[in-house]
Write a structure and sequence with these properties.
The chain has a six-stranded antiparallel β-barrel. It has nine helices and 17 strands. The radius of gyration is 22 Å and the shape is globular. A hairpin with a 2-residue loop joins strand 16 (about 350-355) and strand 17. By secondary structure, the chain is α/β, with parallel strands linked by helices.
Length: about 375
């Protein structure tokens, strides 16, 4: 951190957890001029709201740095809550975290810090790394890299950040393991050193469960559970409560285990099939953000993760012509992924993130 190029003054995004707390502490110890910044995303009780705000303020007091709270509830409601409700209601399983990072957190925090504090850099507690472009190479691109802790690496959720944002980020935990973080926080006597880690999406924490969140926004909609050929095998009370690949909790008695293979929003049906019929050899990915390389014009061999916890697998990416919708949305890059081994649980709405070793090439949404 002491050797990082440029001015050593930045804002630190503080959630009130141990990761962001240690991020701020390490930067202060390295001589950086730090100001804490916490986004107020939801009202009421919740790990990322009331309790998080208190802990973030306490860490800033402990470190002797200013703390700012930015009311982002309206933006979060529009960009994340409404987005999730619309997606789940239409039979898609949306990925809120990468969208939140782009639309609610990183860019807005940088904009606020620059406008209000004259600060042009941001640090967070993400387990990822940034390799800055060689200043002598005018066409060079900054690269997003995996965090060194393979069990905690969060680069999957950062694929959608633009170059302009990537160039202004600092990730002090990128070369630490989670165990290292706990030990460092203990050694520094941080008040959050032993704070339990949230194990779920913030909205699930806030509402008690993801089902409770969805039930608060979507009315029960009874429909049928059917085989691929249309044979009715059961009933459901809302397609939003199912996900591609799911086997347990279907409430269906059949001669062999069945898995969800499609959520039909138009017909309000959950389509199921034996596992042998649930694998896919390819998928289309849209709204692609090429973060570390320019958009390829020819087929490209790479590794891809189709879920945060899934292992990277080999695939060929074939660029496709954008649709009119892609162009209108300002997200013109689209491709087909062809897997060398069939993949299970390919889920529309989730991200497919492309890698070359430790480098995140880009990613997009499975369609």
């Amino acid at each position: 951190m002491r050797a990082w190029p440029g001015e050593h003054r930045l804002a630190v995004g503080l959630s009130g957890g141990v990761d962001s707390s240690l991020t701020a502490a390490l930067l202060v110890a390295a001589g950086w001029q730090v100001e804490g910044l916490t986004l107020w995303l939801m009202s009421g009780k919740g790990a990322c709201c009331a309790e998080g705000l208190v802990d973030a303020a306490g860490i800033c007091e402990q470190l002797g740095v200013p703390h700012h709270v930015v009311d982002s509830r309206e933006r979060f409601q529009q960009q994340i809550v409404d987005f999730l409700v619309e997606g789940y209601g239409g039979g898609v399983t949306p990925l809120p975290c990468s969208r939140c990072n782009r639309e609610v957190k990183f860019s807005p925090m940088l904009e606020w810090a620059e406008a209000e504090l004259g600060i042009g850099r941001l640090a967070t507690g993400h387990y990822a790394r940034v390799r800055l472009a060689d200043p002598g190479a005018p066409a060079g691109r900054h690269q997003l890299l995996r965090g060194l802790d393979g069990h905690k690496d969060q680069s999957y959720f950062l694929y959608d950040l633009p170059q302009e944002v990537l160039s202004r980020l600092v990730f002090p935990l990128g070369e630490l393991t989670k165990a290292d973080t706990r030990l460092e926080a203990e050694a520094l006597g941080l008040r959050t050193a032993r704070k339990p880690e949230s194990q779920d999406l913030c909205l699930a924490d806030h509402h008690g469960s993801m089902k409770a969140f969805l039930d608060a926004y979507l009315p029960p909609r009874q429909g049928q559970i059917v085989l691929v050929d249309g044979t009715v095998v059961g009933d459901h009370d809302g397609i939003e409560h199912f996900t591609i690949g799911q086997r347990k909790g279907l409430g269906v008695a059949w001669s062999e285990p069945l898995h969800v293979v499609r959520l039909d929003g138009a017909m309000n049906r959950v389509v199921v099939a034996p596992r042998s019929e649930a694998a896919r050899s390819s998928c289309v990915v849209g709204a692609i953000n090429w973060i570390s390389i320019p958009p390829p014009e020819a087929p490209l061999e790479l590794e891809v993760q189709v879920r945060y916890r899934s292992a990277p697998v080999a695939a060929q990416l074939i660029p496709l012509e954008p649709t009119a919708t892609d162009g209108a949305a300002g997200r013109p890059h689209r491709a087909r992924l062809v897997f060398y081994e069939e993949q299970f649980s390919i889920t529309p709405g989730q991200a497919a993130v492309f890698y070359a070793g430790e480098v995140v090439l880009g990613g997009g949404l499975i369609q």
